[in-house]
Design goal:
By secondary structure, the chain is an alpha+beta fold. A three-stranded antiparallel β-sheet has the order 1-3-2, covered by helices on one side.
Length: 71
């Protein structure tokens, strides 16, 4: 629920042609913080509910994934 609230607030303050960039540690990465990690498949249902468009998936290296979302 927190994830949805964060994206909803980002969308609210975004300009009409604005973009949101998300870069996250991959779940199987041996590096990075402990705790909850999301994959792109976890984000997709939230972005659909908020009517955010997936503009691009980013190759963010061996240990990360990334997306660009549009309002």
């Amino acid at each position: 629920e927190n994830d949805k609230a964060v994206l909803a607030e980002a969308k609210r303050i975004l300009k009409p042609s604005g973009k949101i960039v998300i870069v996250e540690w991959k779940k199987d990465s041996p590096f990075g913080p402990d705790g909850k990690r999301m994959e792109i498949e976890d984000i997709k249902p939230i972005m659909r509910k908020l009517e955010l468009k997936l503009a691009e998936e980013i190759d963010a290296g061996t240990y990360h994934w990334g997306v660009i979302l549009e309002k």
